[in-house]
Amino acid sequence: MPRAGKGVQPFRLPGDRTGTAFRGIEQGTRVSAPGDLDPERFAADDRFVRALLRRFVADPNAVDDLAQETWLAVLRQAASGGFLGRAWLCTVARNFALQTLRGDQRRLVRETRAAQDAAFEADGEVRCDAPMRARVLAAVDALDDRYREVVRLRFFGDLLPCEIAERLRLPVETVRTRLKRGLAQVHRGLMKRT
User: Which pick of 5, 51, 134, 160 has the fewest CB atoms within 10 Å?
Assistant: First the structure.
């Protein structure tokens, strides 16, 4: 961090006229309001916070976000006249990191449960209850012959559009168009029955 000198302005927070808002953080002195900032001390404490956060979080973007949250908490605490020591700073940064890790863990559990709800059978088939399967088959059977044949070959015969085009002696784009229109009709048919 460049030192304040000729032509270089010291780092200051908005509204900080003296440039010394965090004086005393390292020593653990009481700060009554964010009015004093020592740039060297701030830089050292910021490196300390980021090094601590990197122990918990591997993502550098998450480290930046957590460091910002930590410094916001410092500003709030300093404004209320609270005790601001390195131990306090360490605890705040660690708590933000642990909250993030817990949130990530909860999100992973939710996503896993959601994925299990739409789980696949061992052979790759999607689980489907009997009434839903009957509705889908009825909607496919209600299609025009040209759409029904393409949809059945694609989804029940597990053929690619190029293979269907070869089998039916049609252009590939015609097969794709029929698939798209057929699926739209199946979708409309299923929506009408709900």
Answer: 5
